[in-house]
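Q: Could you predict the 3D structure of Fibronectin type-III domain-containing protein?
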Amino acid sequence: MTPKEENLPQCARKKLRFTLETSLDGHVRAELKHPKNLAMITLNTNYMLTWDWDQSSSESGAVNFTTQYVAKYKLTSKRLSKKKSPVWITACEKTWRRSCDLTKFSLYYLGIYVLRVQANVNGDVSAWEQKEFCPDTDADLGPPNKVDLSPAGSDLDVFISDPVTSTNISMKENHPELYYHVVYWERSAGQQAVGTQTLDSSANIVTLPNLKPWTWYCVRVQSRYDYYNKKSIFSSPHCMQTEGATPWWQIFMYFMASLVTTFLVILLPLYSCFRCYKTLKETWFPSVLLPTPIQYLWDSTGYDIPRLVSPESDSELLCDRVTVEPLLHILPPEAVPAPLSCLEPDSRHSRQDSSGSGDSGVYSTGGSSGLRQPNTSHSSTLAEVFDLVQVKIQDMAPGLKAQHVNVDEGIVDMCV
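A: Sure. Here are the predicted structure tokens for Fibronectin type-III domain-containing protein:
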């Protein structure tokens, strides 16, 4: 016992001894001050404990802090009577920050907790500073998580998303009577609020009635819970223009836009395909045919590729022997000339076979069994017949010409 403790009264010495026994490590200095002004910064289920500290108390060294918590019901007299000290849960240990985040410990929303903070300087610790905390009553309520607007004719639909906890669960799980306070106004040309109106609703979709068509309106929403008089801050303003009856010029513009879109999406690709097909067809199958001479040479040679014929091969490719059979004309009786008493020495006679049948083609109608010998006029008539055959052949084939005609043999040499 120190000399100071000897001079103290007995009750004061007992109180000092009790303080030494309940300290964290058994070493406490009266001059080391404890943290002050413990406060909670909360939003839905996000909790942050903060405190103040007198910097002059830690001039001799660096300071760090330890934060603990425990459920309040564990500190009741019934448990203390059994001489069982409560188990404090350390949330932050020896941290230099003047705050401690308790969100990750998922404190029960309807529970009551006792929080305490202690300072530590060079192994010397201060007394604990305590604070009670109940999330249901002390935690602040946050604004809607999201607010969207959608036109509904001349009205506006407001889509409100519930505020959420740290685990993305709706706050309506903790506050079933939560509702929304909607404030909306008409936005003027100078960005000024005109005719502010309010609306309360617990639904997540709210329709703002009696709005002017083709007018800009702005909306902001606040979360409220009346049991503990909780009110959140307002959400940021969202603005949108209402709609109305569609004018005729706008309908016409939509129609023209649809036509242009249809042309670009459907007709233009079809037209491009048609042009490509036509170009390929004209390239590989042209409508302009080859000239007649070249076409003739192509067909006569039998080759796929046209070529010119050399002059040396004209007689071989285009000349051939043509056999001409003489035509026999049966003359009527009156056309047969009278027989001559004698024949000219150089006249040519028709050939007869051994059977005595005539081959001259002239027959008698007087009933005589003998054959008449051809005379000069008969030979001239036969020459005229061959001339007629030659003329008919030239009519049938203008490109052919007879080089030599042998009447007796009936053979004609023909060339182009």
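Q: Anything worth pointing out?
A: The two ends are 154 Å apart (CA to CA).
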